[in-house]
Amino acid sequence: MAAPYGLRFDCGRICLDLIATAGAGPAGSERLTGPGPLAAWLAGAGLVPPGAPPGGLDAGWVARFRALRALLTRIVGAELHGRAAPFDLALLNTAAAAAPPPALRAVRAPDGTLTAALAAPPDCAGLLAAVARDAVALLTDPVARGRLRRCAGDGCPLVYLDTSHGRRRRWCSGEVCGNRARVARHRRRSAGAR
């Protein structure tokens, strides 16, 4: 699923979607380039309601989210190939316990429907803690951890949660890496037919 700033929300967990902000594929590039992309990611990940960017979001927040992303990348990669380092796990646990996640409340929109709103402006530590807690929940759930997969797309470093029927999903996204693979396969067949 595509979003502004090239953000991706198809990895199956908030923590994995944060890892995806580092860029994917052969032309991977940084997605969290400033406060605007981070605000879009927070809304797209469901950590804040759409259209309610947190106050005080600045370059310091971006640096802290990038640092958590680097930590998650190391831990998830290590779990796919063995075990994460105890020091990294200690850092993850510290981030998860740092602050309470932002509270949501139900409010009536002008049209009468219920919508989510933040009870108070969230702070950076609370949002980081929400992502870190998602990672802790993922990594301590043996069933979910067993569904972690690395994308089979050429040069794609993304990790996703395979919730497909029969656990046969091969790509982080059928629309992105899956489509690239189908196009490449079609080109090879067309070239062979000539």
Architecture blueprint of SSEs:
Blueprint: H1 14-19, H2 35-44, H3 59-81, H4 86-97, E1 104-108, E2 114-118, H5 124-140, H6 142-145, E3 148-150, E4 159-161, H7 174-193
Antiparallel strand pairs: 1-2, 3-4
Helix pairs in contact: 3-4, 3-5, 4-5
How would you concisely characterize the structure shown here?
47% of the residues lie in helices and 8% in strands.
Please characterize this protein's 3D structure.
- The protein is mainly alpha-helical and 194 residues long.
- The protein has helices spanning 14-19, 35-44, 59-81, 86-97, 124-140, 142-145, 174-193; strands at residues 104-108, 114-118, 148-150, 159-161.
- It has a two-stranded antiparallel sheet.
- The longest helix has 23 residues, at 59-81.
- The model has no long low-confidence stretch (mean pLDDT 87).
Output the keywords:
mainly alpha; single chain; 194 residues; 47% helix; two-stranded antiparallel ribbon; 8% strand; two-stranded antiparallel sheet; Jann2411-like fold
The span between the termini is: 35 Å
Unreliable residue runs:
none
Q: Sheet bearing the most strands, described?
A: 2 strands, antiparallel
What is the 3D form? globular
Tell me the β content.
Answer: 5-15%
* Proportion in helices: 40-55%
H-E string: HHHHEEHHEEH
CATH homologous superfamily classification: Jann2411-like domain
Mean pLDDT: 87
The second-level CATH architecture is Orthogonal Bundle
For the largest beta sheet, what order do the strands appear in spatially?
A: 1-2
**What is the number of strand segments?**
4
